[in-house]
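Incident log, structure service

09:12 report received: a user says their structure output differs between two submissions of the same chain.
09:20 pulled the input from the user's history:
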Amino acid sequence: MDDTIRGLEKIIQDYTPLFQPVSEEAWQYKSQPGKWSKKEILGHLIDSAQNNIRRFIVAQYEERPFIKYQQDEWVAISHYQNHDTKDLIELWVLINKHICIILKNTSPEKQQREVLTGELHSIAWLAKDYNKHLLHHLHQVLDMTPVAYP
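09:34 re-ran on a clean worker, output below:
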């Protein structure tokens, strides 16, 4: 889990400055109706963080909790398109730092506890997958070489 936590810390450190040169027009732009803007993708990453925080915490005291969320509904209801971009970036940074703290304080025994998200996975597996998911979407937001994500 230490590598996963260090990986998340590095993602926060390396990618946050890359948001700066993205214009507000680029943050708002939708390539077509029904597609998310960069701002909404960042909002989706915030939603993902919130749901994973819940998984990482609840699985430590409940037996195999079922925690799944409807990503399109979360993005729509949160109205990320209308949020201040700087606030979204700050929230993304802070919520991911919070995840690092939670994971650092999760014992090796608790890291193996499982969560049902549609499939059954350990906290450790979900944390590692969370980083892959982040990189996939961050590369979309920043127009970087795509990172495959299942």
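09:41 both user submissions now match this output. Likely a transient worker issue. Closing.
09:42 reviewer note: The chain has a mean pLDDT of 96. Residues 44 and 71 are 7 Å apart (CA to CA).
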